[in-house]
Structure formats: structure tokens, C-alpha cells
Design goal:
single chain, 314 residues, alpha/beta, Rossmann fold, three-stranded mixed β-sheet, 11 helices, 35% helix
């Protein structure tokens, strides 16, 4: 299966899909720091510096690759819980651009990734209606990455479409494939971190900032700050001894996003942290890609009673 990755960022989605057996033919990105990191890690296919809001130009350029799958994670800040949400913002428009490009190129499959809050947006309703009218059966699902071989409680929304299918077509396969237990940081690193507790800067001090390696990490964000002087312990902090606590390094945070240790990062520290925080966890993308490959190779289930039961028990 040949895929195109739109809004590719530093390559988390590309790497995960590639690991699942999907061939990435090309990628598209506009932000220069992300382009540099992507090019430094992927030499087997091109990445194009492209403004994907120019939909007609994008359709013409992408059609030449004849992709079986168009995948992408349009920038999600206008739907994110971090900061003010604005469905009329330019980043929300990029989700519509993704939809219009899919309809214009009309690959057999598409995969769109975003924050879970997009589920409540009018933009998503518009996108779904357009894609269904174009002949796609749709499956939408919010996945907690810690059930998908990622040591992180990160929820991400996926919209998967295939021409000629019914809605919900791949949902039983996805839900049946989830782990029954969350993956902890200790299980992933095998004690290589050399610490039992670490600091993750909270969005507000009403939330805890200290975590144990015996649980999944909280969401890796685009900032990485040291423990502030005079940190006031939270009731939920598992350790109250600062001598036993440290922040994670940039590379450790990238590994919690399941990038390989030898992945090459470029840029200043703040830029790299932002790239890491914005990325799709590699193993989460691989999980979704594997489900697409498996469904393509062997027809999935249409037992919608089963879908309901699985949803209630997961």
C-alpha cells in the first residue's frame, strides 16, 4: 500500500505507518524546522515544502503519486485544550483542506489524526458529511496511546475512511487490538531512566507535576521546564522528596513519544521540544497502520452489536 503523509511534521506518523508495512511515497509540510528534521531522518522518499491551503495545486501534485492512502495530522491548536479554541481559525481551515484534498485525489483509503476535542466541533461534522457524500465509509475513534504500546496517556482522534465501505467498518478490529493494560514508563524503558520519579511541568499548579515510572507518562507537551524553586507539592504527587525527582531530558521525552533513540533532531531546544510535543507517537501510528493493512488483506467484521459491546467494555 502506497501512502502520502500530509502535514508530516517531524515524521511520527510517517515512521509509524512505515513500521506497519505501508510504503510512504512522499510527504508534505510547510514549517521549515519540521522539514529539516524530516529530511534528516527519511532518505527513501521526498518531502515537499508546500502550502496545503492551496488545495487545487496540492491535488494536482499529489495525484501524480497515485496513492492508495492519504494520511495526515492537520495542525490542531484551534481544537486543543491548551489555550483558546477557535473553530474559525486558520488551523481549523487546514482540516477542511485535508478533506478537500482527499476528495480531489480520491485514494482508496484516508487517515486523519487530530486532538480528541475535534469530536465536538462543527468542522468535523462538515468534514464527515463531505467525505460520506464522496463515497467513503467512515470510522472515527479516540485512542488512548497507552493501550497501543506507548508509555503515555495521550488521547488522539482518528478518522479512517475507505471508498465503498459502511460506517464503522474497521472499529471492531481496532478495539479488539487494544492492550488490556496501560503501558507504564518502567515497562517501556526497563529501568534505563535511572529514576523512580520525574517532573512534568503542569499547565497549572492545580495539577500535579510529579509522576512515577510505574504509570504511563502524562501527555508529552511542547514545553520542558525544570522543577521551579519552591515547588509546592500537590496531593497527587507520588513523591515529596525533590532529591529523588528530576525532569526528563529532551531525548527521553522523544522516546516516550516512541521515537527511536537514534532519531536525529535539529534546531534549538525550544524548537525540538515543540516538534516532539506536536508529533504523533510512532507506535500509535503503527497500531493504526497495522489495522488498515490487516483489514485490507482480510475483510473485517460488520457485527455492529459486537461494536457496541466492545465500546462499552474498553
Amino acid at each position: 500500500m502506497k501512502a502520502i503523509d500530509l502535514f508530516a511534521g517531524c515524521g511520527g506518523l510517517s515512521l509509524g505507518l512505515s513500521n506497519s508495512g505501508i510504503d510512504i511515497a512522499a510527504a508534505y509540510e510547510y514549517w521549515e524546522p519540521a522539514l529539516k528534521v524530516y529530511r534528516n531522518n527519511f532518505e527513501d522518499h521526498p518531502i515537499f515544502h508546500f502550502d496545503l491551503q492551496k488545495v487545487n495545486d496540492a491535488i494536482e501534485h499529489i495525484t501524480k503519486f497515485k496513492p492508495d492512502l492519504i494520511a495526515g495530522g492537520p495542525p490542531c491548536q484551534d481544537f486543543s485544550s491548551a489555550g483558546k479554541r477557535d473553530e474559525t481559525g486558520s488551523r481549523a481551515d487546514l482540516s477542511v483542506s485535508f478533506c478537500d484534498i482527499v476528495i480531489g485525489v480520491k485514494p482508496k483509503w484516508f487517515l486523519m489524526e487530530n486532538v480528541d476535542r475535534i469530536e465536538k466541533s462543527n468542522v468535523l461534522k462538515k468534514i464527515k458529511n463531505s467525505l460520506q457524500n464522496a463515497g467513503y465509509g467512515l470510522t472515527s475513534v479516540v485512542l488512548d496511546a497507552s493501550y497501543c504500546n506507548v508509555p503515555q496517556k495521550r488521547k488522539r482522534f482518528f478518522l479512517i475512511g475507505k471508498l465503498g465501505e459502511v460506517n464503522g467498518f474497521i472499529l471492531p478490529n481496532i478495539l479488539n487490538g487494544l492492550s488490556t493494560n496501560r503501558l507504564s514508563v518502567r515497562e517501556y524503558f526497563n529501568d534505563k531512566l535511572g529514576t523512580e520519579f520525574y517532573y512534568r511541568h503542569p499547565r497549572s499548579y492545580a495539577r500535579r507535576g510529579i509522576f512515577s515510572i510505574d504509570e504511563p507518562s502524562p501527555t508529552i507537551r511542547g514545553v520542558n521546564r525544570p522543577i521551579p524553586p519552591g515547588y509546592s507539592f500537590h496531593s497527587g504527587d507520588p513523591c515529596h522528596d525533590l532529591m529523588k525527582i528530576r525532569p526528563l531530558s529532551t531525548i527521553e521525552r522523544a522516546q516516550i513519544q516512541t521515537f527511536p533513540k537514534d532519531f536525529k533532531w535539529l534546531g534549538n531546544k525550544s524548537t525540538i521540544e515543540q516538534l516532539i510535543g506536536n508529533a504523533v507517537p510512532v507506535n500509535l501510528a503503527e497500531f493504526v497502520g497495522s489495522n488498515i493493512i490487516n483489514f485490507e488483506n482480510k475483510k473485517g467484521s460488520y457485527d455492529f452489536k459486537e461494536i457496541e459491546e466492545i465500546t462499552l467494555t474498553k
